[in-house]
Structure formats: structure tokens, C-alpha cells
Amino acid sequence: MTYDFQIKGMSIYDIPEVLILERDAFGKMAWSSGDFESAINSSYDHPFVIHDDSSVAGYSVLRILAPEAEVEDICVSSAMRKQGMGERLLRHMIDVARENGAENIYLEVRSKNEAAICLYRKMGFQDSYVRKGYYRDPVDDAVIMVLKL
Residue 48 forms beta bridges with which residues? Predict the structure, then answer.
């Protein structure tokens, strides 16, 4: 099956669908509606959604404080994984970071999230350091990764 992926800026109208994906993926560590509203209204946050046909299939939030940028949040619906959406969102964020003067992009990822780590390494991110026991429910280390632009 082929999907027509479209990336656009997140709007407040996307938040209900985004929250469903966020809570499914991140449980107790999920962002709130207010967190996404703040990102939408921020001058340094760049929230995006990716649509398949008419529904939100994934989203991301990139923070740029040049010369650095950080992937604050990224998620693809469990039903739509392994179809290139995460990679397209990440490529889009890299392009936006570069266009806005970032020299490095940082992110943190659960050490046990092998699929995400694989994607980040494929995109050129390298391990920087580990925050032991950073995540809760379940407890896991955070791997901090960086991409030099």
C-alpha cells in the first residue's frame, strides 16, 4: 500500500490526534495539550505533523536555539511504522535546523528503543553520552545523540 505523506506545521486542530499518538507511545511521560500549544506558539519551537490521506500519522517538535537544535519529540503511529514516515520527519527537521543556522542537532532516546537508535544512526547521529536511569515507567537510560551539520 502506498501513502501520500504530507508534512506541515502542526496546528491546534491537530492536537487531539497528536495526543492519542503521544499517550500511546510515551505513557506517563507524554506531553500534555498545553505542551503542544506552547510549541505551536513558540518562536523557537517548530512542531510538524505528517499526514497519510486525512489523519495524523506522526508528528515531531524541533527546538532551535542556534547554533544548536534539539529534537524535543518525535512519534509515528504504531500502525504506520516502517513506512518511512519517521525518516521523512527527521529529514525535514534536519533541513529546517540547517536553514535556521543550527550547527548541531541533539536528541535523547531510550537505550532500549533499538528501532529509533537505528534510524538516528542511519541519519548520521552519533552517541554523545548516557544519562543513567533518566526514564521512568519503565526505568531506562537516555542515550544523548548529536548530529553535526
Answer: 9, 60
* pLDDT tens digits in sequence order for the chain, 149 residues long: 445 678 999 999 999 999 999 999 998 889 999 999 999 999 999 999 998 777 899 999 999 999 999 999 999 998 888 888 999 999 999 999 999 999 999 999 999 999 999 999 999 999 999 999 998 888 999 999 999 99
| Cα 105 to Cα 111: distance, rounded to the nearest angstrom | 18
Q: In the 8-state DSSP scheme, what is residue 2?
A: -
Identify whether the C-beta of residue 124 lies closer than 8 Å to the C-beta of residue 147. yes
Q: If you search the block for the grid coordinates 552519533, which residue do you land on? A: 126
Give CA–CA dist 87/48, Å, rounded. 13
- Which residue type does 75 have? C
Nearest to 5 by CA among 46, 55, 75, 47: 55
The pTM of the full predicted model, rounded to 2 decimals, is: 0.93
